[in-house]
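User: Please run a holo structure prediction.
Assistant: Happy to. Please share the sequence and the ligand.
User: Here you go; the ligand is coenzyme A.
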Amino acid sequence: MEDDVPGRPDLRCEVPHEGGAAAWREFAAEFAAAGETDIPGSGGSMRADFGEWVRRLRASAEGRDLLAGRVPATTYWMMRGERIVGCGNLRHRLTPALEALGGHIGFAVRPSERRRGHAKALLRFLLARAHELGVGDVVLTCDRDNAASAAVIRACGGVLAPTAGSPGDEAVLRFVVPR
Ligand SMILES: CC(C)(COP(=O)(O)OP(=O)(O)OC[C@H]1O[C@@H](n2cnc3c(N)ncnc32)[C@H](O)[C@@H]1OP(=O)(O)O)[C@@H](O)C(=O)NCCC(=O)NCCS
């Protein structure tokens, strides 16, 4: 499945597929080389073999075989040509835990592609997919010291919305993008 990214004819989004193994490994290696061990929005680290991992992501998007406490979630790769430039994960609904920490959406752009507006384009794409799924207000959280993430969320309409249910964790900012 492929989707255009509005306003960015150079980019498109795809769901992970079996043919993307080399592109994924090259993308993930760049994060590792930069010392970034976690890739937000990737759908979790790849523990099984690539094909198995892709099947697991597809099952998650379809709400099949979910682990306890997990909600359906769709993972996207944002592509330029055959290169993955970013990734995003859209949780279809929230649990109480995600309400406070994690929210509906996680995203990342590879280090060599940052400061080109890719994250803003990706988050706008993910917000549109959330609305298609019937999500109203979209919740996003980020570490307080993650200035880049907070700026991207604000640029896409996010407003600070701490909740009483937050873990009292002042290291985390919670935003809502109102519908
Ligand atoms: C956060 C992240 C996705 C931003 O990606 P990006 O493609 O560089 O973001 P954009 O180019 O769309 O930036 C949009 C705006 O955010 C702000 N911004 C981006 N990077 C910034 C930084 N390092 N410091 C401060 N502001 C920043 C700027 O205002 C920027 O607009 P400008 O470049 O016109 O000034 C990227 O840094 C990343 O992948 N980080 C690691 C993973 C992560 O933290 N994900 C979010 C988890 S909640």
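The mean pLDDT is 94.
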